Amino acid sequence: MGTDGDDLDAAVYLSSYTDGDIRIHEAAHSSTAPPVNEWAPFTDTDTGHASAVGKSLLAQLDFNSRRDHLARYPSTQLTERTITNPRALIELLDGHGPHAAQFDLLEYSRTEICVAYSLGLPGRASSIALSLPVHQHKRLIAVAHSLSGRATSILLAHLMTDETNRYVAEQRQGEGAVPQPRRALP
Q1: Would you state the pLDDT for residue 176?
Q2: I need a labelling partner for 12 at 20 to 30 A (CA). Which of 36, 37, 74, 128 fits?
Q3: Which domains occur in the chain, in start order?
Q4: Integer-rounded Cα radius of gyration of the chain
Q5: pTM value?
Q6: How many CB atoms lie within 10 A of CB 53?
C-alpha cells in the first residue's frame, strides 16, 4: 500500500467481506503509526460489530446478508462502549448510508480509535480504514478527511495490483490461460 500510513501518520488497512468473513488484505504501519493491538482478531467475525472495519463492511451488505451475519455472530461486549443490541447497530450502520464513514470510538479497544470508508466496489464489500492511538483522538477527523480524499487513488492502485496478480496466476496455470476481462469502474 505504499507509504500512506506514514504520510497520514496513522496505521492504514485495506479489507473486504468475502464468503462471510472479514479479511484484511493489506496493512501499512510504522513505529510512529502503530497498528491496532489485536487482542481479539480484527478478522474474527465475532468482533465485526465493534470495529470500524467490520461496521463499514456490514453497512455495505444487503439487509438479509447483514441479518444472517448478526445471527451467526451475535454481538458481544468488548468494552463498555460496544453496541450489542442488533437493532441499535443496524440503525447506526444505516444512519448515514452504506458509504458513510464508520467509526470505532473505543468500542473494540480502549487504546485505539478508528475510522473506515467504503471503497464502493460493485458486488464486493470493501473498505479502507485507519487507526490512531487513543491519546491522538484530536487528530481523528483531520486524518479521516485526508484518508477519504486518498481513497480513490488507493482503490485504483489496489485494483491494478489485484488484476496484475490474477493475470500472473493464470499465466502460471498454463500457457492456454486467458486473462479475465478487466473490470470497468462505475
Answers
A1: 54
A2: 74
A3: 4-151 (3.30.450.40)
A4: 17
A5: 0.79
A6: 31
